Amino acid sequence: xxxxxxxxxxxxxxxxxxxxxxxxxxxxxxxxxxxxxxxxxxxxxxxxxxxxxxxxxxxxxxxxxxxxxxxxxxxxxxxxxxxxxxxxxxxxxxxxxxxxxxxxxxxxxxxxxxxxxxxxx
Amino acid sequence: xxxxxxxxxxxxxxxxxxxxxxxxxxxxxxxxxxxxxxxxxxxxxxxxxxxxxxxxxxxxxxxxxxxxxxxxxxxxxxxxxxxxxxxxxxxxxxxxxxxxxxxxxxxxxxxxxxxxxxxxxxxxxxxxxxxxxxxxxxxxxxxxxxxxxxxxxxxxxxxxxxxxxxxxxxxxxxxxxxxxxxxxxxxxxxxxxxxxxxxxxxxxxxxxxxxxxxxxxxxxxxxxxxxxx
Lengths: 121, 229
Hints:
The structure holds two protein chains of two kinds.
Chain A: E1 5-9, H1 13-25, E2 29-33, H2 36-45, E3 50-54, H3 62-72, E4 78-82, H4 87-91, E5 99-102, H5 107-120
Parallel strand pairs in A: 1-2, 1-3, 3-4, 4-5
Chain B: H1 2-11, H2 17-54, H3 61-90, E1 97-100, H4 101-118, E2 122-126, E3 133-136, H5 138-155, E4 161-168, E5 172-180, H6 191-198, E6 203-209, E7 212-220
Parallel strand pairs in B: 2-4
Antiparallel strand pairs in B: 1-3, 4-5, 5-7, 6-7
Helix pairs in contact in B: 1-5, 2-3, 2-4, 3-4, 4-5, 5-6
């Protein structure tokens, strides 16, 4: 029985699929979507406890995706993945994120931040 | 949408060559960071499997083969990105000289691919490979093409296609940047781009119709080194 269920949203398939595999190896129920629109649709069909979202997405932007998720699922925390965590990137950060993670992601940090964000909500 | 267009073009302003370089470098390093992240996670996955193996969970040869393939593919991707950026950077070595515009444009298009992808736009080249030698300042010529590409990209919507083309006329090279929309599009304001083009003796001619926009950049086969210096 998984402790929680997470949806990762990033257009780099190799990256999210590997992260999902590593989370599943730790008995965490994880899934991924490559676009904001497919993630929004999936969340309308399936329940997730936490979302990890890259802001740089093709089509519907990460910011817009987060706005929709926050509106439709106000109790689901959204963690943002940034490219470098630079000051320019941080200025562009949308409001409403539970926390931020810079690439490359440390899996233990990710799990800790997800747990913390869910407990805070 | 107008706000979005303005934000897009302000983010990639035309005022200096340094900003052109910066825009390309920022986009490429983002992509490179993704490559490094994938390699990092794949290495992490291998560590996970090894630590599980120490606790008695078997590792299949297929898993190891798959992980090795992932690392090899990302290493190749990363090397390609670095080589493209290196070719682009060396374009600024000489103020003027002979160079292959076909190869340089193809390289620029590859570097700009991510910017297009992030807007959900498909970027194509035609012909895919072409050799066209001309004499001029490679960096400034590419800057002009890139800025026009950004201007047209700011008009593009998700799912639309931009085609970058190159052809040789009797006395000039013609770079075409076409946005196919199937709808009427306004021609973007190209006043800044025209000033920069004028500095290298180039001309910009935009046209629109019910199917989209085409902007042709006419480049002299030999740009006098004094122009715009």
